[in-house]
């Protein structure tokens, strides 16, 4: 019986299925592409300036304030409580969005939505704590795919309901509330993990593994079969008194883990390659989140929702689909990313900058839509490449650390952009001028990586020519070889 119990608890299909259902219902939000028209319409009756300069910035501030503590607490409490917290935050957000009124109430909505986004880390981290390393690639694919499918279906459904059935934005939000409520029910069904990546590591040393030891470390966490009732019983009873005596006290263990996290971060960022890819990640993600957060405001400015047909849902559906295709293409690109990766960052960041400048200068809503599609597809392509380049030589734990810190740095940069350009207490720029700022911002990113990639290519070319010219012939004496090398190199230089 104990063997059967252990085997049942180690299966990966049930938690993967429930987590995919949770992700599907979380992303099934047909009202999301129409948030700005809803807030500025008769339901909430806010002005476009209030939404831009006083409501939306609250999300950025709350996200920043909650990200670090949630990131650490998520691992400490083993993920499921944070998923429950995210489900509750979803429900509170849409209850307030449906039934609360006034500027302050909508700012509270943005605070709770900041809680939702800060707790997203638990979604992908959870599955790694309940399945074996052999299934990581498969379950990650399932979890990511289901969210993309749900987001696309939600956008299509929202657009069809608005355009064909004349459903109000209020009822779209009611549908979203029902969906996120189902997501919360799914989170209740998830089994509680017995381990986590940092604070509750079983069967391995307390220090984080090196990249070449991650597979062995993860493999030791899950037994493939039971050798007998005696072994299973011993596994269920926990550590012996002698082992318990050797375990550190909880407060010392937490401190030791935090110190080790700091050392691992230092080791990761000591690699110049990882440092530059992380730099692009942080800079580009900050700009991308800022654009996505305010793109509906620009669309509403170019084609006011109270007097024009709104196609936000259709645009978001196409953008999600195109982004999925471009991300999928990365797996089949045969390129030397070590040599050409930063050049790709520079080229596609230039495309992002051009798209944003088009959004600023054009008055045609369809050009705005098309520019957004190009912008989002380019970013998704690059973030997929950056993710692969950072994760390829790192253990899961170290990748999680870099992922968390890169997103935190991105959020800090985004907060600076919000305070300076958007917030009414800062410059409080109008939405059109903001997109001029964002285009200039991505131009700087493109310039950094284009200049660096060109310099790197020129340097490598010169090094190869110098080495080939200065190569010593085999038939010369040692003295003649040195003289030939010095003379040739001097002439070349």
UniProtKB/TrEMBL annotation:
Which taxonomic lineage is given here? Answer: Eukaryota, Metazoa, Chordata, Craniata, Vertebrata
Could you tell me the membrane topology recorded for this protein? Multi-pass membrane protein
Keyword annotations for this protein, in alphabetical order, are:
Membrane, Transmembrane, Transmembrane helix, Transport
Q: What is this protein called?
A: Thiamine transporter 2
Q: Which family does it belong to?
A: Belongs to the reduced folate carrier (RFC) transporter (TC 2.A.48) family.
Q: Where is this region: Disordered?
A: 220-249
Under the GO molecular function aspect, what terms does this record hold?
Answer: thiamine transmembrane transporter activity
Which residue stretches does the UniProt record annotate as biased composition, category Low complexity?
234-249
Primary place of residence? membrane
Kindly list the places in or outside the cell where this protein is found, as annotated in its UniProt entry: Membrane
Please give the Pfam families that the UniProt record associates with this protein: Folate_carrier
Sorted alphabetically, the Gene Ontology cellular component annotations on this record are: plasma membrane
Q: Where are the transmembrane segments?
A: 12-30, 58-77, 84-105, 111-131, 143-164, 170-192, 274-297, 309-331, 343-363, 369-392, 399-423, 435-458
């Amino acid at each position: 019986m104990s063997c059967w119990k252990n085997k049942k608890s180690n299966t990966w299909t049930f938690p993967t299925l429930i987590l995919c259902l949770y992700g599907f219902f979380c992303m099934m939000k047909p009202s999301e592409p129409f948030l700005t028209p809803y807030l500025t319409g008769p339901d909430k009756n806010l002005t476009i300036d209030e939404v831009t300069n006083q409501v939306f910035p609250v999300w950025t501030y709350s996200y920043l304030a909650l990200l670090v503590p949630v990131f650490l607490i998520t691992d400490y409490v083993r993920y499921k409580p944070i998923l429950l917290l995210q489900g509750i935050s979803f429900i509170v957000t849409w209850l307030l969005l449906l039934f609360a009124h006034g500027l302050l109430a909508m700012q509270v909505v943005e605070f709770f939505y900041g809680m939702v986004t800060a707790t997203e880390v638990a979604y992908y981290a959870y599955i790694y704590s309940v399945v074996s390393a052999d299934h990581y690639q498969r379950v990650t694919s399932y979890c990511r795919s289901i969210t993309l499918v749900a987001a696309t279906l939600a956008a299509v459904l929202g657009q069809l309901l608005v355009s064909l059935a004349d459903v109000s934005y209020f009822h779209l939000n009611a549908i979203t509330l029902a969906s996120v409520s189902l997501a919360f029910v799914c989170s209740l069904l998830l089994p509680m993990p017995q381990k986590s990546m940092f604070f509750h590591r079983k069967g391995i040393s307390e220090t984080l593994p090196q990249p070449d030891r991650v597979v062995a470390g993860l493999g030791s966490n899950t037994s493939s079969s039971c050798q007998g009732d005696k072994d299973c019983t011993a596994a269920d009873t926990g550590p012996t008194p002698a082992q318990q005596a050797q375990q550190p006290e909880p407060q010392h263990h937490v401190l030791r883990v935090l110190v080790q996290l700091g050392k691992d971060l230092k080791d990761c960022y000591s690699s110049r390659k990882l440092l530059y890819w992380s730099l692009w990640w942080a800079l580009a993600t900050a700009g991308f989140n800022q654009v996505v957060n305010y793109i509906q405001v620009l669309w509403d400015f170019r084609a006011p929702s109270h007097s024009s047909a709104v196609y936000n849902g259709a645009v978001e559906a196409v953008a999600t689909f195109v982004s999925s295709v471009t991300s999928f293409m990365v797996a089949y690109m045969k390129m030397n990313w070590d040599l050409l990766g930063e050049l790709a960052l520079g080229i596609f960041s230039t495309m992002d900058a051009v798209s944003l400048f088009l959004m600023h200068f054009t008055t045609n809503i369809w050009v705005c839509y098309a520019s957004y599609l190009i912008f989002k597809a380019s970013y998704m392509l690059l973030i997929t490449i950056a993710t692969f380049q950072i994760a390829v030589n790192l253990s899961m734990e170290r990748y999680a650390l870099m992922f968390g810190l890169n997103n935190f740095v991105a959020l800090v940069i985004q907060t600076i952009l919000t305070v300076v350009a958007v917030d009414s207490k800062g410059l409080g720029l109008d939405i059109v001028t903001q997109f001029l700022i964002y285009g200039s911002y991505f131009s700087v990113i493109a310039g950094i990586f284009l200049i660096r990639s060109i310099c790197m290519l020129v340097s490598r070319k010169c090094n190869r020519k110098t080495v080939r010219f200065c190569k010593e012939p085999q038939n010369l004496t040692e003295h003649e070889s040195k003289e030939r090398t010095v003379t040739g190199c001097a002439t070349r230089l």
